[in-house]
Amino acid sequence: MRSGLAGYLNQDSQVLEINLTLDQTELIGNIPHLFGNSIVLWRTGSLRDKDVIKLWIYYIVSIFIRKKKTHLFFYYLNNEALAKLSLIK
Length: 89
Prior knowledge:
2 helices, single chain, globular, alpha+beta, 46% strand
C-alpha cells in the first residue's frame, strides 16, 4: 500500500477547513489529506460502508466549499491488492 500512495505521502498535505451554514444548520470541521486538487483517504483493510459514506460527505461538502475541480480518492486493500474508489467533482 505504501508504494501505491508514495506520490501523496511524499508531499505535505493540507487541511480543508469547513465553516458552512445551510439554512439554520451550521457545519464546522476539517477535511484532512488535501493534496493539491485531490482529497486522498486510505485504510489498510477492506472497504467498509462507513468509508464510502465518509467519501460522499467529503464530496458533497467540497462542492459547496471549493470552487475548483476536486478529485476524491479512497485507497484500500481488496484481497491484499491495492484498490481505489474515486469521485471527481
